[in-house]
Amino acid sequence: MLQAMPVTMTVLASGSRGNCTVLSTDTASVLVDAGISCRETLKRMRAAGEDPAKLKAIIISHEHNDHVAGLQVLARKLQIPIYITEATYHSWRRCTKDPEGKPARLERCEHFHPGRSFSVADITVTPFTIPHDAADPCGFTFKACGIKIGLVTDLGYLPPNVKENLRNCDGLMIESNHDLEMLRNGPYPWMVKQRVMSRVGHLSNAALGDFFENEYDGQAAFLVLAHLSEHNNHPEIARESAFKALGGKTNLFQSASIMLAEQDKPLQPLTLG
Ligand SMILES: [Zn+2]
Ligand SMILES: [Zn+2]
Questions:
Q1: How many CB atoms lie under 10 A from the CB of residue 35?
Q2: Which residue from 7, 47, 2 is spatially nearest to 169, judged by alpha carbons?
């Protein structure tokens, strides 16, 4: 008899000091973003029970440092293909040097295109364009063993194409970056506040709450709130905002199934299937 195989998502790090998540099936795994050092990535993978030898690819969402800081070393060490759009790759190369001081290169580079799915082992990846101030930023859904997981952070708002892609997700990791009041009254210079709040900045608790309340289909068995600002948000404020927005809309949720991704340690592995 065919048995559903589990799919596991492990958030190794999330936030403006580094982002990295592992998606894995029984046979393969991929790393989404490489925003913490190679050493720390491998250390956190082992701590979470993920075998680095199972990694088949690294998939990059965009070239901001908190998503690529460990990329060059990880690519050299793991010798696996890096999936990255051409524009993101060139933008990354322009500001990254190799150990000899020349523009960095990736040995095994696969260029993907937003809107076109590709496969890594038994995982189908669908990248889609998100509104963010980078060269060619993308969110992703991952399908394996009949399970769909969405992963989207670093976006100023939720345009229709993103909402469309997030339909029918069994698991969802989504940005809940800042509380608007905390951001307005917080320590950032005005220019930075403007950038974060803009249409190509980061998603606020309120914007996410609006989506949860009015358009989200309530399908996911787990929700991970991600890329929380350390200065302009508080985990309990973000959780409360999401919980309230979901309240009454679906009975799938108890506060236990809303999780908060952390910056400095991996989140417990979340398994579906
Ligand atoms: Zn980021
Ligand atoms: Zn970014």
A1: 27
A2: 7
Whole-model pTM: value is: 0.96
Distance 154 CA to ligand 1 centre (A): 5
35 Cα to the center of ligand 1, angstroms: 9
- CA 67 – ligand 1 centroid, Å: 6
Cα–ligand 1 centroid distance for 229 (angstroms): 10
Question: Ligand 2 centroid vs 35 CA: distance in angstroms?
Answer: 11
The neighbourhood of ligand 2, an ion, using CB within 5 A, equals: 64, 154
User: Using an 8 Å Cβ cutoff, are 20 and 35 in contact?
Assistant: yes
Rounded distance between C-alpha atoms, residue 167 and residue 216, angstroms: 8
Of the bound ligands, which one is closest to the alpha carbon of residue 64?
A: 2
The ligand minimizing its distance to the Cα of 62 is 2
Residue 267 dihedral angles phi and psi, to the nearest 5° = -80, 155
**Tens-level pLDDT at each residue, the chain (273 residues):** 455 679 999 999 999 999 999 999 999 999 999 999 999 999 999 999 999 999 999 999 999 999 999 999 999 999 999 999 999 999 999 999 999 999 999 999 999 999 999 999 999 999 999 999 999 999 999 999 999 999 999 999 999 999 999 999 999 999 999 999 999 999 999 999 999 999 999 999 999 999 999 999 988 989 999 999 999 999 999 999 999 999 856 545 555 589 999 999 999 999 998
83 to 5, 118, 134, 238, 260: CA distances (angstroms): 25, 10, 16, 31, 27
